[in-house]
Write a structure and sequence with these properties.
The complex is a heterodimer of chains A (about 375) and B (about 700). Chain A is an all-alpha fold and about 375 residues long. Helix content of chain A is about 75%, strand content about 0%. Chain A is elongated, with a radius of gyration of 28 Å. Chain B has 4 domains: about 170 residues, Tetratricopeptide repeat domain (Serine Threonine Protein Phosphatase 5, Tetratricopeptide repeat, Alpha Horseshoe); about 280 residues, 6 Propeller (Neuraminidase); about 90 residues, Sandwich (Immunoglobulin-like); about 130 residues, 60s Ribosomal Protein L30, Chain: A (2-Layer Sandwich), CATH 3.30.1330.60. The termini of chain B are far apart. Chain B has 12 helices and 36 strands.
Chain lengths: ~375, ~700
């Protein structure tokens, strides 16, 4: 999923880069060899014309999505003129289009070896590293991009994401701030800084950031949802429910926001309201284990232990590693006076990392009730 | 002033609204049925006679007579009052209120203390507000100078109602289940005692099967006898049986206390009219004739409740002996006596401090197998009525925490006594009279569920704007107040390794930190059964020894905050024969080193003693590791460790020609890696690895 997302993103970048070059060159050239000349730009002075021709053919092939021909043409240009930097970079983009990432990386590295000041190429290398989850490598490349050009908000933003993924939230926060300083209405950066603040337990700052994100992008469903979750963490359930509701108005099938609103209602002791939301979630997404688990939680509160067992069992069917579903079912079994079954579930939950289940396993003397 | 006005209005309203016409037991009221009247009057008068204070009021005997009279005429204020009194003083206490109320409605002036009794009726029904109103009304008619003691009594009841109101608003989560037909009958069952693991119980009952089959004519009930049941081989309780002679006699015999392993029982015998405690021991699964405790325990006053500490070094008991510096009327207090090893008797009796013993009675003590939690009944503290059960914990410095009422619904406005708690801290047992029981008092199991186990819900967010993958929020688990006990129970059977016949063996409990023997127990010669309670906070070395056998050693590290654990172990003792080997569980080395730690001393001395007593023994000491780490390293380490043990023995004077050593590393595991990988719990896996790390000795020749 992540790879697909980045693939789409890089494709978009390639296209935008090529468009930028094209637009720029139209302004400088007016000869009959316009297509070729417009594509060779500053290299035109010292590059072999044959190489320039092959290069321009490569661009045409790329625009026609004939990537194999584009690779051949760019390679020919490089063969004729090994110092032809742009041929390497365009071959790199074409390799990305062909999902040949290691070849693309080699091309971009060649470009950098010829000219280390090309920030966009550092950036592309960072994006490539991200695609293979090489987070530290990505950070290195984005840092190089920033060193070459500190005014590009995307560089800060992307590096911030890598720090975030590494759990280095303070550094992530600094980078998101850097991006926001360069682009005051950068809604994504506000959202992501909010998430960094949330994970740093700076809930009030997180709320501020999520709110800014929704102000700069009033259609940003995810930011409304995250705002709701921050309010919920703060214990302000009414505002949480309002924020989730805005996300749901924008996207009525957003099962995450619905599930989260149900959770907020549950915390606000509106168990019927919570149940309604959770039930709607499983209508939208039938295999969403968390919602089944949450329905079980509501039934535990309502002391309907049979239903709690039914729904936690469904949660386990959809996600056998959902430790809290075993925990909840164990609680329901205990209240139904089926203590041995409760012990078995708490044992499973404990193995899946739910520490409290281990405590209950011990305090219920489960070790003496179930066979080891 | 405002209270008084409200009370007056309330009483007036009651009188007005419910006023009925009284029909006294007067022949002029029953001219048309003289014969029936005569019969009913006889019942009434007979009942009244039984309620006279001398020798003492016999409520249960009077009750059926009054009921017959009531069937003829239910409109007598006097009869209603007398019925209320009978119910108030027998098992169906809840029924008293209606009769007191009727008496008041029929004739508000019949009994000057009627508001007190109506208050008692409401009190027993946990109707706190109405009870307080009637107690206040009763107080109004008392003289503040001449009736000071009575006013204090009523104030105590009012305080109980206020306590009850608070306690009922915050009930403890328990299941209360009748122990079932194997234990309970239509006759009274009460005063249950049990082994620490609650596998064997004893209790008092008044059944037709009582020894001699006679009734106590004073109360028209069978004489008390001690009965027993167990669940050694079945999941449920075995049918209860009379324990017979010599515990039970033709008179009253009541079980008072049991040692945690069930090897000693304390019984109550009202031998000289003052009530005393006797001890019986179980030898070859038979109880010995009960023997009176010494005068330190059995004073000329009344002693009726007692309990052993798990190490058998302390004896807690209740006595109404007067206090030295208080010419107080007798009230029951809790005392503790200490076992004097040299004189082999209980001495140095001390009264528990004032924060435990109140000016009201304390009774029904039970010391939990953790050795520090004392349960007792008291009419003082914040009791909600009569005796309530309280809990206090002895702190590190020896002082006792302020008692905590164990709460409603275990405690009720009536007397709550005879409460025992299993080692797991979750299961308890009590005596109660409840609707739906088998009749009269029954034994009930109380399961403490602890605080509510809150459900854990789950939420997910997409935290990053350019990611489509939801991130599951860290699950915040609810805080947990663990209610279990911090101790371990080791129990099982000691047998001969070859014949599998039960063996009597001495079980020595050592504190490995101080190298002191802290307690000694023995297994039963006939059943081989043993039970050792291991309170948290110590590393225990356990040696099981019998003559002609190699000793068996176990090690248990029970941390201060350890959760309750019950370990059942069959210990097969091996004869001192060639080829036999045993694991020395209490030999310790520093991590990754082969230096002996001081805690190993007792085990090594035990081994030295064995070699001295068997001068022809030639042995091999072997070291074993678990499978973690490199095989080569493990082998070298185990060899060096075995060598260190041999060097210790040589230093202690054992001929080096009798000793060999070997290091097997991970080659001879008790639990294979495959077996460990199939285990469910991490703790189990760690214990299995721990089992594999060991020092063994094997007899090479004898």
């Amino acid at each position: 999923m992540i790879l697909n997302t980045y693939y789409m993103k890089v494709n978009t970048l390639i296209i935008s880069l090529l468009v930028t070059f094209t637009t720029f060159l139209y302004a400088q050239e007016d000869s009959v060899k316009m297509v070729v000349a417009k594509n060779v730009e500053i290299d035109s002075s010292g590059i072999d014309p044959e190489a320039q021709k092959a290069y321009n053919e490569g661009i045409t092939a790329f625009e026609n999505k004939n990537y194999t021909s584009a690779i051949a043409a760019f390679s020919k240009a490089i063969e004729i003129a090994p110092e032809f930097t742009k041929a390497y970079s365009n071959r790199g983009y074409t390799n990305i289009a062909l999902e040949k990432y290691s070849e693309a990386e080699a091309d971009f590295l060649e470009v950098i070896s010829q000219d280390a000041s090309l920030d966009k190429i550092h950036f592309e290398l960072g994006a490539l590293a991200e695609m293979t989850d090489s987070l530290h490598k990505a950070i290195r490349h984005y840092s190089n991009a920033i060193a070459s050009n500190a005014k590009e908000e995307a560089y800060h933003y992307q590096r911030g994401i890598q720090y975030f993924k590494l759990g280095e939230y303070e550094k992530a926060k600094d980078d998101f701030t850097g991006a926001i300083l360069l682009k005051k209405d950068f809604a994504d950066a506000y959202n992501d800084r909010g998430s960094a603040n949330k994970l740093l337990d700076n809930i009030q700052d997180a709320i501020q950031d999520y709110r800014s994100a929704t102000i700069h992008d009033p259609q940003m469903v995810l930011a409304f949802n995250n705002l709701g979750s921050a309010y919920r963490l703060k214990g302000d359930y009414i505002k949480a429910i309002q924020a989730y509701s805005k996300a749901i108005v924008l996207d009525e099938d957003n099962y995450l926001a619905l599930n989260n609103r149900g959770y907020a209602k549950f915390e606000n002791e509106d168990f019927d309201g919570a149940l309604q939301d959770f039930l709607k979630v499983i209508q939208i997404k039938k295999d969403y284990a968390s919602a089944y688990n949450n329905i079980a939680g509501v039934y535990l509160k309502k002391e309907n232990y049979d239903k709690a067992i039914e729904y936690s069992t469904k949660a386990i069917e959809y996600d056998k590693n959902l430790g809290i579903a075993y925990y909840n079912r164990g609680v329901a079994y205990e209240m139904n006076r089926e203590v041995e079954k409760a012990c078995e579930d708490w044992s499973e939950a404990s193995n899946l990392g739910v520490e409290i289940a281990d405590k209950y396993f011990q305090s219920t003397s489960c070790g003496n009730l179930i066979s080891k | 002033m405002k209270t008084i006005i409200i009370s007056s209005i309330f009483i007036f309203t009651c009188s007005f609204l419910f006023a009925q016409k009284e029909i006294t037991f007067d022949k002029k009221n029953f001219k048309d049925n003289k014969k029936e009247f005569k019969e009913a009057l006889d019942y009434l008068e007979e009942g009244d006679e039984l309620l006279l204070p001398n020798p003492f009021p016999r409520y249960s005997q009077a009750l059926p007579l009054y009921e017959k009279a009531y069937a003829f005429n239910s409109k007598s204020a006097h009869l209603n009052f007398q019925l209320g009194l009978c119910y108030l003083n027998t098992v169906n206490k809840f029924k008293a209120l209606d009769f007191f109320k009727s008496s008041f409605e029929l004739n508000p002036n019949k009994n000057p203390d009627i508001h007190f009794y109506i208050g008692r009726g409401y009190h027993l029904q946990s109707d706190w507000d109405n009870a307080i109103k009637h107690y206040e009304a009763h107080k109004k008619r008392l003289d503040t100078k001449n009736d000071l003691a009575l006013i204090m009594d009523v104030n105590k009841f009012i305080y109980e109602c206020k306590s009850g109101k608070e306690l009922v608003e915050n009930p403890v989560r328990v299941w209360i289940d009748n122990m079932g037909k194997q234990i309970n009958t239509e006759y009274p069952e009460y005063g249950m005692i049990m082994t620490a693991d609650a596998s064997e119980i004893f209790f008092t009952s008044r059944r037709p099967s009582t020894t001699g089959g006679d009734k106590d004519v004073m109360i028209d009930q069978y004489f008390e006898d001690v009965y027993t049941s167990n669940r050694f081989t079945t999941k449920g309780w075995s049918p209860s049986t009379n324990v017979g002679d010599p515990i039970n006699t033709k008179g009253h015999d009541a079980a008072v206390a049991l040692s945690p392993d069930g090897s000693k029982m304390i019984v109550y015998i009202d031998d000289k009219g003052d009530g005393n405690l006797y001890e019986s021991k179980r030898e070859e699964n038979e109880w010995t004739k009960p023997k009176s405790f010494n005068d330190e325990i059995c004073s000329p006053y009344h002693e009726a409740s007692a309990w052993y500490s798990s190490d058998a070094k302390r004896l807690f008991f209740v006595s109404d002996r007067p206090l030295e510096n208080r010419g107080d009327p007798k009230d029951r207090d809790i005392y503790v006596a200490f076992w004097n090893e040299d004189k082999e008797e209980w001495l140095d009796v001390k009264r528990l401090p004032e924060n435990i013993n109140t000016k009201y009675d304390e009774d029904g003590i039970f010391l939990h197998p953790d050795g520090k939690t004392l349960y007792f009944s008291s009419k003082g503290h914040n009791s909600m009525g009569g005796y309530d059960i309280f809990k206090t914990v002895q702190k590190e410095d020896g002082s006792w925490s302020d008692p905590e009422n164990i709460g409603y619904p275990v405690n009720t406005p009536d007397d709550d006594v005879f409460f025992v708690v299993a080692a797991n801290g979750r299961d308890a047992y009590m005596t109660s009279y409840r609707e739906g029981g088998f009749g009269d008092k029954d034994l009930y199991k109380v399961t403490f569920l602890g605080p509510v186990k809150e459900p854990i819900l789950n939420s997910e967010d997409i935290l990053l704007a350019n990611s489509s993958v939801p991130v599951r929020a860290n699950v915040i688990e609810p805080k947990v107040e663990v209610t279990g006990s911090q101790l371990a129970i080791l129990k099982g059977i000691v047998r001969d390794d070859k014949t599998k016949e039960p063996l009597k063996a001495e079980i020595e409990l050592v504190d490995n930190e101080t190298n002191e023997v802290i307690a000694e127990f023995s297994s039963d010669a006939k059943t081989g059964r043993y039970l050792v309670s291991l309170p948290g906070g110590k590393n225990y070395g356990i040696a099981v020894k019998a003559e002609g056998y190699l000793f068996h050693s176990e090690n248990f590290d029970v941390t201060q905050d350890a959760d309750y654990k019950e370990v059942e172990k069959i210990i097969d003792l091996k004869r001192v024969d060639v080829g036999q080997s045993i694991v020395l569980r209490n030999i310790f080395f520093d991590l990754n080193k082969y230096t002996l730690r001081s805690e190993s001393e007792i085990e090594l001395n035990r081994l030295t003693k064995l070699l001295i007593e068997n001068p022809n023994l030639k042995i091999e000491i072997s070291g074993h590791t678990d499978s973690r780490g490199s095989a080569e390293y493990n082998k070298e380490l185990s060899k060096n460790r075995a060598k260190t043990v041999v060097e210790y023995l040589i230093e202690k004077g054992i001929d080096k020609d009798r000793l060999e050593y070997a290091g097997y590393g991970e080659e001879q595991p008790i639990n294979t890696d495959e077996e460990i990988s199939k285990m469910k719990l991490r703790s189990e896996k760690e214990a299995a690895h721990q089992d594999n790390r060991r020092t063994e000795f094997k007899i090479l020749s004898n």
